[in-house]
Amino acid sequence: MSPRRLLARLRSERGFSLVEMVTVMAIMGVVMSGLTTVFITASNAELDMNNRFQAQSTARLALDKFRREVHCATSMTFNSTSSVTVVLPTGCKSAGTVTWCTQGSGTRWGLYRVGGSSCSGGVKWADNLVRTDVFSYSAPAGGARVLPTIGVDFPVNVKPAKTTELYELKDDIVLRNGTRS
Questions:
Q1: What is the mean pLDDT of residues 163-170?
Q2: 144 pLDDT above the threshold of 70
Q3: Reduced to 3 states, what is the DSSP secondary structure of residue 5?
Q4: What does the alpha-carbon distance between residue 4 and residue 32 come to, in Å, rounded to a whole number?
Q5: What is the DSSP letter of 81?
């Protein structure tokens, strides 16, 4: 190809018109806004799932710790449906008097482990409980040689308005050192 022909061919090529550029930008804007919406929704779903998983995990850990302490205890006092005091001997991991109780308000309660017999301060073991009455005591029935039990019910929900996301952790713990009927 001769240089003249090449030059003529380059001069005859034209760029895009303004209308074509605006049309392409509008289409790209619609596609990008759709993708952004999908990514934001997925990010929010992941955050919600992680919060629920963390709340459920801490409730399981709290139940395990409570169960170990009740099984090791020399005595247990059922104060109310929201408070239990446990006396741990020197052979246990942490000796002394410990109170497990719920603190909070409204629809968000936390389960605390407090050194001593009062329910103030302490270390939070579980969060996002939807009610305060998490303990129940069952005395042994007359005639049967059984031990008393303490019932635990941890209803966990990060969003209490959505009842379908409620995670309920229940257990009946036998008081090994309790008095048989």
A1: 89
A2: no
A3: helix
A4: 44
A5: T
